[in-house]
Design goal:
Blueprint: H1 2-14, E1 24-31, H2 41-55, E2 70-84, E3 92-110, E4 117-131, H3 148-166, H4 174-186, H5 189-192, H6 206-214, H7 219-229, H8 240-260, H9 265-282, H10 287-300, H11 305-308
Parallel strand pairs: 1-2
Antiparallel strand pairs: 2-3, 3-4
Helix pairs in contact: 3-4, 4-6, 7-8, 8-9, 8-10, 9-10
């Protein structure tokens, strides 16, 4: 594999080949303010188990230098699951060891030649439910179903890496997205029919996020991720005008994708990640560029149209150069 050989050659020269680090540098945060009856000490253990699980699995065959690792954060806001008591009277009791959660997942990657990072993926999942008992580890298998928490964490690991690889080469994340699809196909039927995974009614859930990414009409948005990041942001320290022109092309491609397949979760994930960054990038642009982007983003993200009018205020920034470039342009090449 091209990328692995380059990295290993570099490490041999340093005398450090053989280290092992997972591809994603996770931060895990758990909020239990909504828990009223369960002993909250179990969630300290759960957080440790999630960190151990996420840090202990390699999702690709590539090996990442420390500065190459994808930074990601997962926020779990957990609440209890209640059921009606068999004693009658309308009372509800907590279902032991079963929890529901809202999960927010975010990821970013470095901008080439700078100390700055750019957000890549930003998604909120309101349909997480899982079972966890004290002393129980979290296990994942590519052959058998081992529990919904493990599969949800694995799913988002594949998706985060897929989006990241797409920023480094055209459709570079295809293999990771297909692994997420394989994960879904292995789920038991009763799990596929739960709210977080089911294909019916076009819920804003994991199934439809993955479907959007793999849908042929959205290939133009896949291309936009590469143009925006590799040909845009990563070139900002070389030629600002040309880089910004490529970002404009990427935004226009995102609009085309949204017109071909309206109101997808994929397009929404793009604008949720990029909204503030786009405003800052185009504060330093020409008037015609600003008008083009304000119009495009207002169509793509209509509920936030007023945000993009802030582009006309001056003070845009250019990434600062203060360390050696990150050697990540080979990611995704097989």
């Amino acid at each position: 594999m091209v990328r692995s050989l380059l990295v290993c050659t570099f490490l041999i020269l340093l005398g450090t080949c053989g280290y092992a680090q997972s591809e994603i540098d996770w931060t895990v945060k758990i909020n239990t303010d909504q828990i009223t009856q369960t002993d909250k000490r179990i969630f300290n253990e759960l957080e440790s188990q999630i960190v151990r699980f996420l840090d202990g699995i390699f999702w690709t065959k590539d090996r990442f230098l420390p500065e190459e690792r994808v930074e990601a954060t997962i926020f779990l806001t957990i609440s209890e699951v209640f059921e009606e008591s068999n004693k009658g009277g309308g009372a509800s009791v907590v279902v032991p060891d079963v929890y529901k959660a809202t999960v927010a997942v975010q990821s970013s990657r470095p901008i080439y030649g700078t100390t700055e990072k750019t957000p890549v993926f930003n998604f909120q999942d309101r349909f997480v439910q899982f079972q966890y008992q004290r002393g129980e580890g979290i296990q994942y298998s590519e052959q058998t179903y081992t529990g919904d928490l493990a599969n949800i964490l694995a799913f988002y690991s594949y998706m985060i890496l897929g989006f990241d690889y797409d920023t480094f080469s055209p459709r570079g994340g295809e293999e990771l997205f297909k692994k997420a699809q394989d994960l879904y196909n292995r789920l038991p039927t009763e799990i596929q029919n739960t709210q977080g995974w089911r294909s019916g009614n076009k819920s804003r859930n994991r199934y439809w996020l993955l479907e959007n990414v793999l849908e042929g009409r959205m290939l133009v948005l896949r291309r936009a991720y590469y143009t925006y990041h590799r040909l845009g942001l990563d070139m900002m320290t070389i030629d600002v005008a040309a880089a910004r022109a490529n970002i404009t092309l990427a935004i226009e491609d995102a609009v085309k994708a949204n017109q071909a397949y309206p109101n997808t979760m994929y397009a929404q994930a793009f604008v949720d990640a990029k909204r503030e960054e786009i405003v800052e990038i185009y504060k330093g642009a020409t008037g015609p560029e600003q008008n083009t982007v304000i119009s495009a983003m207002s169509r793509l993200d209509p509920s936030k149209a007023s945000t993009y009018r802030n582009i006309r205020f001056t003070g845009g920034r250019r990434p600062s150069v203060s360390r050696a470039p990150v050697r990540r342009n080979t990611r995704g090449k097989r």
